[in-house]
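Narrative summary of target 7.
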Amino acid sequence: MLATYGVSEEERERLAEMARDDRPDWLSTSKTGARKELTTLIEFERTATRIIDVATGVIPGLLQTSDYARAIMQGLPPDEVETMVLMRVGRREILTSKNAPEFVAFIAEAALNERIGGAAVMAEQLRHLVKMAEWPNVEVRVLPAGAERWHPAHMGAFIVFEFPKATPIVHLEHYRSSVSLHNVGIARAYLEAVTSLRELTMSPHDSVRLIAECADKLEATT
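Modeled conformation, tokenized:
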């Protein structure tokens, strides 16, 4: 509407940031809500300067191959799967856009050892991860298995979106629901969790080497 009325891009961004800061926490549980939440998630990705994805069970969405994403979405109605896969793969283009955000992925080692979609699909996914980690704005870190003390990732996956001026937003996804948290204090707590996790993860170089080794093992079985 603002574009239709001739409002400048700068002013549209300013108003969008104001609206983002003033939005209440939003829980989505229905199909209609899920579509609305996906649209909002895409907007977060488009306007964020940094995205931190802590993935404990599966590979982060923006780093998924189409076959891996398709395997994850098998619980959806068949007529929706291909549409959702195309949308997920298309979202990845944000990482190569002109104003691409910095993307930091913390991936639990356990997620690398799952064979979602089968060994061939998982091996392709891991090779894709290695390639994505070469991009200048993408950082991949593996959280080793066998922790001897509790850490924030034990409580589950989460995504933090950081913006140029607006308050960070925390996004949580569950089996049939998702929630976006806009509270300043909560965002600060999750960013502190990211700091503690960074101290426990492998370096980007060692992480990529481990991912490649996992791919080698899978390919040896196919």
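The first strand starts at residue 26 and ends at 28.
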